[in-house]
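Structure ticket #2291
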Amino acid sequence: MTGGAVTRVLVADDQTVVREGIVMLLGLLPGIEVVGAAADGEEAVALVERHHPDVVLMDLRMPRVDGVEATRRIRAAHPGTEVVVLTTYADDESLFPALQAGARGYLTKDAGGEEIAKAIADVRAGAAGLSPQIQLRLLERLSEQPAEPAPAVGRPAAGPAELPDGLTAREAEVLALIAQGLSNTEIAQRLFVSPATVKTHINNLFAKTAVRDRAQAVAYAFRHGITGTQQ
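Resolution: structure written out below.
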């Protein structure tokens, strides 16, 4: 994990055998400490309040409180706790509500230990922890609907009217790189600016687009065609 620090993880899944299997798998991964396991979303919210984990691995289809609502409650009350969805489902009705609720990662349950560890590390570093299949689904969803005009990364905008919500060309560049999964440091290196400048752009574009975190920014970017894939 980043800087050799231990990442404290909570697991939420209503199926006992799956939950215990995930806990066992995580216990074998270096730099990860499992601090709790919840059988539904309501218990997950309560355990986050008690243990303050760094990351929650969240199933979606659970009794009492489902994963989307649990994610929304956790992110609202504990913004320092990231949520990575780990579910059987990759359909739009599962994916987009989870991202809108504040999840920064999304994996399906065929993910291996290395992929889960990478997603956990990515969200801890401020990037999106999306599996390749989920990134492909976002691109497919983008291609299925007309996108609002936006400049490609590295190209000047023809005019401010082409960008939604008053975004500047530079803010659109930063948003596209967020959608590609880059961290603040990687964006700074790509654009040859300081990390502080990148953070300022991110704060501005978050305010303009009314998104709360990077996962919602990714969904916004794909919704409006600001992904850098036009190059």
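Closing remark: The CA atoms of residues 120 and 129 lie 7 Å apart.
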